[in-house]
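TEACHING EXERCISE
Course module: macromolecular assemblies
Task: Read the component lines below, then compare them to the predicted structure of the full complex.
Student: A.B.
Group: 4
Components provided:
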Amino acid sequence: MRDSNSPLQQKFAALKRRAREAWEALRKGPLVLVGAATCGRAAGALEVLKVLEEEIRKQGLDARVVEVGCMGHCYAEPLVVIAKPGFPSICYGYVTEGIARRLVQDFLGGDDPCLEFALAALEPNELVPAFSDFPRGQVERAVLLEKCGLIDPQDINHYLALGGYGALVKALSLSPEEVVAEIKASGLRGRGGAGFPTGKKWEACRLAPGEEKYVICNADEGDPGAFMDRTILESNPHQVLEGLAIAAYAVGARRGFFYVRAEYPLAVERVKAAVRDARAAGLLGPDILGSGFDFEVEVFQGSGAFVCGEETALIASMEGRPGLPRHRPPYPAEKGLWGRPTVINNVKTLAYVPLIVERGAAWFRGIGTPQSPGTAVFALAGKVVNTGLVEVPMGTTLRQLIFGVGSGVPKGKAFKAVQIGGPSGGCLPVSCLDLPVDFDSLAQAGAMMGSGGMVVLDEDDCMVEVARFFLDFTQKESCGKCTMCRLGTRQMLEILESITRGEGRPEDLELLLELAEDVQAGSLCGLGRTAPNPVLSTLRYFREEYEAHIKERRCPAKMCQALIAYYILPEKCERSCDACVGSCPVEAIFTNEDRLKVIDQQKCVKCNSCMEACPPQYKAVIKLSPPELVRELERKGGAK
Amino acid sequence: MQKITLFIDDREVKAPAGRPILWLALENGIYIPNLCAVPGAEDPPAACRLCWVEVEGYPRPVTACTEPARDGLVVRTRSPRVDRLVRAAFELLLSAHRLECSRCPKNRACTLQEIARARRLPLRLVRYRKLARDLPVDNSSPAVRYDPGKCVLCGRCVRACRREGTGILGFARRGYERRVTTFGEVPLARAGCSGCGACALACPVGALTLKTKSV
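Instructor-supplied answer key:
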């Protein structure tokens, strides 16, 4: 290692000093942070931001409003953090324009911290409970997301002031081999889903013959329900960029790329700004801080094909060819972009790199499990109280995640399954709740880490329908190149559709299982090979639901339209009420001679409107499966 | 080039290192089902998923078109696992293929028939559902007839058209909708087809056929 007074260190120290001064100047007065990543914006964060600025101006207050990224508590968006000297930093949730005005008037203008709107404080204090005091805080551990939501993603000084780019400077004073060795020693595994050891990938690329090499950040996040990569790029793009630069130095690349899907316009904008600012600061470009290392970064926008997240298809699309995967080997680390050795890493994988380089492999190994060190970042969604971005150490159980962090299933419904890993993942039932979350345990149980989507399902979700939904997705997103995936997933979808329509045949389950195994074994790329996972896992854990659909024409969750009927319980129906009649779009509800409401099953389109319209004190509308039960009940009612 | 020795179905084969096993087997009279592979093409498409073989020491069957020959390799072209994968891929292709062998100009010269014969597989749907796409037959070219309903998407015609014809054929759309077609999906005659017939000669099934035998 070179000494700390090297020109490299001196240049960086000057950069950092300026950044710290700017940061401290900002923190001197009252500071208002508004979470304005895509999730916050969707909930109205930009409107809140405007009101805050207006109100502060109107009151003539000295307070700065800063747009930050996502804080992870998506369920309570829009989120605002106020850091006022003399008070702890307090996070406010569900902020409306009215609440925003109150916060400015009473807290910034006066001294009332408006605790009725507070979610929690950022750090433990005497005044307000902090996030870490809640059950969620006991399970969560922010490593990757440490700075997300606390810094302005568009201001490189914020990242620098909190130690950013220190890892790049440290890496540049090591040999590339030492950097590769450190990543290998850390045991970091690729967070794109497959969990391949990152250090091994880098080493293969480093050792591959060739002068010209490339590094690519894969930000083509496409799983339904997943938004981790988007959030990280929107909230802290510099950390990923720093990771990419370290990767380039380690493998011997001078050019790098961000492959960001075009559906993420804000992420594209933030990454482009980060590249521009880092280059202006001399942290990218030729001869970085006088170290002799050149590195240029370009941003490439993917055009929306899910399969382009597969690395060989990603490369094909960057080269201007149709985004179709090819056979591996050769792996991209030997023969990648334009035939040159290329490292492709997921956003999260790269975001860990600066932390590992700075704090050391041993620190990283101290988190998580021996085989899967580090943390896992999940986008928690579906039937769970606290949706949002969650980071926990690997090895945390599903129960801790869903019930500890997510606070369980809303509306008192029963937990049924959790779908992990998106369309390549699987559904795990109650019996798997104590399973530790890591690459190998999940794979063994029939799911997959995937890129980290986690959808909680409750008693109202039909597992056959869930499998059908994901298969419909992969079938549409299959590139169509290879027989197994193109036609195999299509055949599987046909079978699942007929089962959800109540037209399944008894032999269909065996056929489905066989087909799923063949598609898994025989497809060309990872998309096809993992596409059967939702089917295989639901068949493994919820076979009786499939059988109920086929043998009894019954959907246990009462979700499959063809297998249910709506019925109004005469004993609960209130004669003076006709809420359901007005709600029905097809006039299927009429009043019988007892002045009770009855549904004409011939006309009913099963839109669920009457069930929603029926006032909660009556709850007279119910769903029945199989639909034939209606006739039985009506006969009984008639005989009465 | 360096010569190596490997074994395919217990037969000793001498070959240049790196040559795909598929070609070595075929050259030595050992049949392996295949549709999309073209000798001499640089990167095999590995799309038809028919040329499965077992290689000793490998955890699962591999496609012979992508497996380079190495010294001492022990290859088997049949095993329960191989047969199962071949059967699945074959029947999947049949499920999306307009089956009318007796009326098909390619009858008795069709590779699907050849595979069925070699592996004793039925030329009808046993397990899967029929997937009918109802794509119209393109009769616009004076030289060739194109029935997309019979196409197995091997891509040989695309390659032949680019090398010998006017290069008007290509793939369009994705997934189940993927098809061989012209730019803008216009009929062959309007796309600039010269009628050379290279595509029909390359087609292993009855999707592209010559209208007259004398071309």
